ATP-binding cassette domain-containing protein
Amino acid sequence: LIQVFLPLNTLGFVFRETRDALLNAEQLFALLRQEVEIRDSPQARPLRLQDTTLRFERVDFSYEPQRQVVHELSLEIPHGQRFAVVGSSGSGKSTLARLLMRLYEPDAGRISIGGQGLPEVTLQSLRDAIGLVPQEPLLFNDSIAYNIAYGRPEASRAEVEAAARAAQADAFIQLLPEGYETVVGERGARLSGGERQRIAIARALLKNPPIMVLDEATSALDTRSERAIQAALDQAARQRTALIIAHRLSTVVDADQIVVMDRGRIVEQGGHATLLERGGLYAQLWTLQRQEEQAQTLARRLSQHP
Ligand code: ATP
């Protein structure tokens, strides 16, 4: 019997070890591929968390040899601040998050947390310190309670429910036929995109990490879901150092600083008002988003009152 179960347990163990770092299926594969190359150095120490200032210093990065996607990028997010990163699709926003998690190694430059270079700290402590809310969270075909408790399996039911409340997920969960015991379906198919993301936020809140990396969903949400997600994200970023890949105007406006990316470079950085005044790329993106939102609101009204 032991012989039969041992390999399965080992597999379960490996999966457990990697799962905390999951962003989505794509990144799981990246992680598995990278695991051969990215390892703890013999001198690696656990990350110290007194200061969680995130610093990128002249970072270059390419996924493939011929195509550089991050160019000499420098960025500092001070301890406890919330930074929003905006920019067109493909400008390199998610890549920053992946580099911070050390799913990939920069080709040049340095990334550090509180002065500790990522290669100097253990991968486990690094990934324990960062809560990730991906755009397309990976949910398991198991109960909602299991999916939330996933980052901290020993959490009590009361803790799971508190996290769900903070993530604005409790109300919709209560309405499901079996509440927290409802099985979410393959990849969470029984939930909407906004609901899946709130489950992911609850999961991250339960883990209670000092650093949060949030990738907002781009998909159109109705106004009520959008408000709920916004409140949940606020909760997740509160009193933490946060990097938010932002798609919504409200998130951007509330951030301590806005970082505007274009083709792998930071082209503008500052507060909302300053950037608007500047009349550069941020001002353009903002106008474009406003028009899109207005068009969506109009489309919604028309579909409600044809
Ligand atoms: P979006 O807003 O669409 O999510 P983004 O700003 O987050 O875009 P990234 O996902 O960081 O952009 O991608 C930056 C560039 O790197 C893009 O040109 C993309 O095609 C490329 N890229 C991303 N992932 C990989 C990969 N695994 N292998 C090769 N190229 C990749």
